[in-house]
Amino acid sequence: MTAGEERRGQVAAVRRREPEFGLLPQLLGYTLRRAQVALFQDFTAAVQGHDITPGQFGVLVLIDANPGLNQSELGLAMGVDRSTVVAVIDRLENRALVSRQPAPRDRRSYALELTAEGRRLLGDLVPLVHAHEARVAERLSPDERRQLLDLLRRIGPA
Amino acid sequence: MTAGEERRGQVAAVRRREPEFGLLPQLLGYTLRRAQVALFQDFTAAVQGHDITPGQFGVLVLIDANPGLNQSELGLAMGVDRSTVVAVIDRLENRALVSRQPAPRDRRSYALELTAEGRRLLGDLVPLVHAHEARVAERLSPDERRQLLDLLRRIGPA
DNA sequence: TATTGTTATACTCTATAACTATA
DNA sequence: TATAGTTATAGAGTATAACAATA
């Protein structure tokens, strides 16, 4: 019996109740999307005042872990086109968090580096992001959290 | 030991290897995002030729399950602002999949309905979406798939 | 010939603020 | 006063196509 069938007796009179979601709640795509929206909102609240998005945080982590990486490599790592990387780096460079250095042996490309301020910000963000992660997983046991990560990694291409 | 430490011996010579992802792979936010990108791409391929996004599919399901619902209620159900709903419905109405009918007892609002073509399209899409769901979960047992849905629903606000 | 960064362009999704009509 | 739909506007994020500089 669906939620709708449970309430069938009261219908047609007022029509001000929770909507039916049809097959949506059984779909991975829909359920994943809902979880991601919740996560995004909590992330934004967690880093409030630092004006950083999850994507920008990822870029800072990636450059920190791979100093000297160029924009095309960064795009590949993030799964976006290199033309998309331009504006992303422009924003971070304008905020003096990332710098474009001349690449040692390829004058076509830039070596991306965190500035001192970028490193400082990343250092501030990491504990906030860990707190955010703990909060969104607060209704999961450590084992369930590990299992969720494992199941998510098994979605999509082998 | 991290993946980076394993390879430390070969570094500094060539510098053309897979990037390090730092703490990213341990984060729910990052892992969820990766899974969602994979899902989105597979969905697009699955409904190829029907020119429909996951969000638009959700709107068709919601209107089908709640005929006569208005735009504000739809926005609430989708978790987006009512101003965002306008363009979404404009697109679907221009394609004659959804119609704005006068609402019976409130002249400010529209009663949203699927057109005959909208119902036909939804009927075509449902099996394609089920096939897509099966494909993205092909490396999950039925029990693991149920568990993933359960864990995802426990992310975010209680 | 191929690659890197860039620009121009376009489209989706999202929000806020303000407006009109109606409740 | 409050609500429904709309518009204007803005910003992030994404892509494709073409270009100059360089490999």
Element layout with pairings:
The structure is a homodimer of 158-residue chains.
Chain A: H1 3-6, H2 28-46, H3 54-65, H4 71-78, H5 82-94, E1 98-102, E2 110-114, H6 116-136, H7 142-153
Antiparallel strand pairs in A: 1-2
Helix pairs in contact in A: 2-6, 3-6, 4-5
Chain A binds a DNA duplex (23 and 23 nucleotides) through helix 5.
Account of the protein in words:
- The structure is a homodimer of 158-residue chains.
- With 158 residues, chain A is mostly helical.
- Helix content of chain A is 56%, strand content 6%.
- Chain A contains seven helices and two strands; from the N terminus they run αααααββαα.
- Chain A has helices at residues 3-6, 28-46, 54-65, 71-78, 82-94, 116-136, 142-153, and strands at 98-102, 110-114.
- Chain A has a two-stranded antiparallel ribbon with strand order 1-2.
- In chain A, a hairpin with a 7-residue loop joins β1 (98-102) and β2.
- In chain A, α2 packs across α6, α3 (54-65) crosses α6 and α4 crosses α5 (82-94).
- Chain A is globular.
- The interface between A and B is large, with 58 and 58 residues.
- The structure holds a DNA duplex (23 and 23 nucleotides).
